[in-house]
Backbone:
């Protein structure tokens, strides 16, 4: 499949310019604004593998750097800055793929910053959120306070979670998504940790896990779209 790749730059209000990367198959059916985690930028191998895999499944992606990552800082941006970056990235995607269903989210920190931004004020044109390893709590005892804001999100959400994720106790994330009702879908990846690695004794490979993740995301985007509330469509 032919994939068009474009390096971009755009401004984050009050925080300077950041770089981004757009990947699009020849005839995309949707676009996903895919934010990176706290410890690695948009060029991390996992980010690239997800973008490549989604392109092969007809989904365009827009990756970008949060301002702190762009500046080479080790500490992640505070939420207001990350929210502004996510909002600016969504606006870029809307400008480029305005006729397509637009989704937003990210890996770990990137996903949580997306949902916080959406809860405060809907992101431009975004019809649904996709979390690739939602960080429900720090490593250690389970808690769910980081999910409180999700009750203010009014678009469909897909949670892709490894069952061994140390940042999202399985019973806790199951309870969170159940409480959110019809707007939340939980895709459990058996045996995967927060980085979507599996133990050798599981009998599965990381490549098989990634295929399940990608098929799940693309399938949810494709099959769910026509059945979602009119208010989430453009």
Residues:
């Amino acid at each position: 499949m032919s994939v068009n790749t474009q390096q971009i730059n755009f401004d984050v209000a009050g925080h300077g310019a950041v770089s981004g990367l757009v990947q699009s198959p020849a005839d995309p059916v949707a676009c996903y604004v895919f934010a990176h985690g706290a410890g690695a930028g948009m060029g991390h191998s996992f980010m690239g593998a997800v973008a490549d895999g989604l392109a092969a499944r007809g989904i365009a992606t827009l990756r970008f750097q949060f301002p702190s990552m762009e500046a080479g800082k080790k500490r992640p941006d505070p939420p207001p800055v990350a929210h502004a970056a996510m909002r600016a990235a969504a606006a870029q995607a809307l400008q480029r793929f305005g006729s397509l269903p637009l989704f937003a989210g990210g890996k770990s920190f990137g996903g949580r910053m997306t949902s916080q931004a959406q809860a405060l004020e809907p992101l431009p044109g975004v019809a649904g959120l996709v979390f690739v390893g939602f960080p429900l709590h720090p490593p250690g005892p389970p808690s769910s306070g980081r999910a409180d804001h999700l009750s203010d999100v009014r678009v469909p959400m897909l949670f892709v979670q490894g069952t061994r994720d140390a940042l999202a106790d399985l019973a806790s994330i199951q309870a969170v998504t159940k409480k959110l009702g019809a707007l939340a879908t939980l895709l459990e990846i058996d045996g995967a940790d927060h980085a979507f690695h599996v133990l050798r004794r599981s009998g599965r490979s990381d490549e098989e896990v990634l295929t399940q993740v990608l098929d799940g995301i693309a399938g949810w985007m494709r099959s769910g779209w026509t059945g979602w509330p009119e208010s989430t469509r453009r």
Observations:
- The longest strand covers residues 3-11.
- The beta strands are 3-11, 17-25, 30-35, 59-64, 102-107, 126-132, 157-162, 184-189.
- Residues 105 and 111 are 4 Å apart (CA to CA).
- Confidence is low (pLDDT under 50) at residues 226-234.
